[in-house]
Amino acid sequence: MPPHPSRAREPILNLPAVISLCLLALIGIHAARLLLPDESDFMLIIDWSVIPARWSTAFGSVQVEDVMRSLREGVPEDTVTPLMALAQYVLQSGEGRPWTALSYAFLHGSWAHVLINSVWLAAFGTPIVRRCGAGRFFILSGASAIAGAVLYAVMNPLQVLPMIGASGAVSGLMAAASWFMFAPASWHWEGRLTQPHERPRETLGHMVRNRQVLIFLGIWFAANYVFAFVEPLGMTDASIAWEAHLGGFLAGLILFPLIDPLPARAKRISA
């Protein structure tokens, strides 16, 4: 018997397989797009991103002329012509492309954009998968992405610029995790303290009295305000919108109690 038995090496990133696959998909898609000619990549973005004016004219009461009029009235003269050309191209077929409510989440504007979303996906998607399983994780992520796209389109019905990114889905995962990540620890039947994903979720009353939850939500809303309206150091991407973040966040906050396999905490446990 050797004097120093070898120990099994712990992985540097102990991520669930489904999270690793999602990260590979997001990063791989962005890397593959870099190999495309500019025209092909432009077409891919136009075909698979959320463009609110496309939905408004296909499924709502908005007319193409309404979109054109808004461009003539609300856009600087030096950008009117390119935007009107884009609007004509996007709206000429009259197709709504409803699947873009999901497909936009797989596209990103830059390496910084996709890597930031990947970090947050790993951070908040991991406890959701460990708690709920892969199926409910995909339901929650998909519903949050759709909610983000819908709220963005409702609040910007005449917008012809594409909106892309997984931020809506990630925001939904963050909201879902806030139900249990800051819950008080208790003793597991194995004789150890419970991990955050093993704890009963907070009730709404407990959440609004939990300082850690309030600080977390305050930071989240403040960060969205800064990146949406202040745009520090040019770090924001033109195709990202706070409306999509908010829509995804609200979806995750509302939907999680309906799919959570663990019960809510009955009462506050005294420290």
Automatic annotation (TrEMBL):
Membrane spanning stretches: 12-32, 101-125, 137-155, 161-182, 213-234, 240-259
Annotated signal peptide: none
Membrane association type: Multi-pass membrane protein
GO cellular component: membrane
Domain Peptidase S54 rhomboid positions: 96-255
Localization of this protein: Membrane
Database matches in InterPro entries: Peptidase_S54_rhomboid_dom, Rhomboid-like_sf, Rhomboid_protease_S54
BP GO terms, sorted: proteolysis
Keywords: Hydrolase, Membrane, Protease, Transmembrane, Transmembrane helix
Alphabetical list of SUPFAM superfamilies matching this protein: Rhomboid-like (SSF144091)
Matches recorded under Pfam families: Rhomboid
Protein's UniProt name: Membrane associated rhomboid family serine protease
Organism: Microvirga lupini
